[in-house]
Amino acid sequence: MDIVVERRREPRAGSGVGEMKLELTPGRTRHVMQRSAR
């Protein structure tokens, strides 16, 4: 899942909040990714 997060972070340079949430909830990476994509 790290690869997906990194790839999404590249195109979205302003995803600081998402990164923090991912670190705080490593078990909910899919939820955060889906919310960020929308």
Word description of this protein:
- This protein has about 40 residues and is mainly alpha-helical.
- It has one domain.
- It has three helices and no strands.
- The chain has helices at about 1-10, 15-25, 30-35.
- The longest helix is centred in the middle third of the chain and has 9 residues, at about 15-25.
- The protein is globular, with a radius of gyration of 9 Å.
- The protein starts with a helix and ends with a helix.
- The model has no long low-confidence stretch (mean pLDDT about 55).
Secondary-structure map:
Elements: H1 2-9, H2 16-24, H3 29-37
Can you give me a brief rundown of this structure?
68% of the residues lie in helices and 0% in strands. It is mainly α.
Short descriptors:
single chain, globular, mainly alpha, 3 helices, 38 residues
Tell me, briefly, the overall form.
globular
The DSSP helix count reads: 3
**Which class of secondary structure composition applies to the elements?**
mainly alpha
Helix/strand order: HHH
Summarize the amount of helix as a percent range.
55-70%
Largest sheet descriptor: none
| Rg (CA only) | 9 Å
Calculate the terminal CA-CA distance, rounded to whole Å: 18 Å
